[in-house]
Amino acid sequence: MIVKSGPNCYIRPYTAIGNSCHVGNACEIKNSIIMNGSNVPHQNYVGDSVIGQNCNLGAGTKIANLRLDKKNINTILNGKKLDTNRRKLGVIMGDDVQTGINSAVDVGTIVGNKVFIGPGAMAKGEIKPYAKML
Fold first, then answer.
1. Which residues are known catalytic residues?
2. Per-residue pLDDT at 93 exceeds 80
């Protein structure tokens, strides 16, 4: 397994990182799966999430994993609202997703393959494959 990690990164327990990944400076990854070829380069937080293959999170991308009211997290799948029965859940992200700098992803978000989330954008709910959020 080849994983490059930068200074001051914190990879917490129950995290799996695939081959040819990069976790950069000042990142924290908690209880998540990062699949092969994905990059979490610098100043990112990924918690309780699944990141697909060949994804790239822009600097400062934050993934929320806990509701402010600490209730169960709901998600949307195929237009239907579902209770996940989980208090903590970040994102389920498909393959080849890119986020711009300082983007944010809300709790329980499902992101399809080849989605582009632009700089400063807030992603939430269900984002279909090939979508562009600017």
1. 42
2. yes
